[in-house]
Specification:
The chain has a five-stranded parallel β-sheet with strand order 3-2-4-1-5, sandwiched between helices. It has a five-stranded mixed β-sheet with strand order 6-7-10-8-9, sandwiched between helices. It is built from seven helices and ten strands. The protein is 31% helix and 22% strand. The protein folds into two domains: 4-128, Cobalt-precorrin-4 Transmethylase, domain 1 (3-Layer(aba) Sandwich), CATH 3.40.1010.10; 133-238, Tetrapyrrole methylase, C-terminal domain (Methyltransferase, Cobalt-precorrin-4 Transmethylase, Domain 2, 2-Layer Sandwich), CATH 3.30.950. The termini are far apart. Helix 3 (71-90) packs across helix 4 and helix 6 (162-170) packs across helix 7. Bound molecules: S-adenosylmethionine. S-adenosylmethionine is lined by residues 11-12, 99-102, 105-107, 132-133, 177-179, 204-208, 231-234.
Amino acid sequence: MAELTCVGCGPGDPDLLTVKAVRAIRGADVIMCPTSREGKESIAYSIIASVVDAAKRPQVENLVFPMVKDREVLESTWKANARAIAERVRGGKNVVYLTVGDPSLYSTWIYLQRELKSSYPEIKVSVVPGIVSMFAFASKVGISIAEGDETVAVIPACYDLSRVRETAKNCDTMIFLKDGRYFDQVISLLREAGFPSSSLFAIAQDVGTDEEVVKKLTLGEVTKETLTSKYFSIMVVKRA
Ligand SMILES: C[S@@+](CC[C@H](N)C(=O)[O-])C[C@H]1O[C@@H](n2cnc3c(N)ncnc32)[C@H](O)[C@@H]1O
């Protein structure tokens, strides 16, 4: 009986793929990859391309997940993409679905898994965890995410930012993901909330790729030029 495996591909460096991830990828008949628009290369696929078994010639298919917030569009996308995956598995193919980092953190997989479970419960599903981008980032910059009794918040920076002020009052480490284009607004809010300017500040873009940018300074030293401007950015601010 064919199966579906979701593979977490880690942050970008193929050396950070787990042994289990490589085994699943090399055993796949079909590799299905998320992308944000038609014709755009899948970032997740670019991470694993070098470990694909060329002799096995797996079929590689992109599934488009448009980056929109309209709930109706999102729901019909999840349904259509879950159906496409289910059709391949029902047709006897072992399918691997890829996600960047780990599948359980802000990933397309979360919605697909929900839809597959309710509409195609007979399909056997397994998940291979991946290294999360913020942990790859922490080891690169040489910082701890949390020590002792410190608390941590993970915040997607492209939604309602008014929550940042409240979180900043109650949290030691704040990790901002999803979209560096909003990071200047986040910095203003942290300053308004009185987050100490001696706090550690670290920022990165495209971790684990040839375009990687990594910086570490204090919150007080941050200027507009320090910030990144790409979606694939991470920012950590940690109370001194
Ligand atoms: C849709 S979320 C996926 C998170 C992913 N599942 C994980 O475990 O890291 C995408 C966001 O993760 C962060 N991200 C993932 N990989 C990254 C990388 N290699 N470099 C910088 N940021 C990354 C960025 O904040 C990006 O906007």
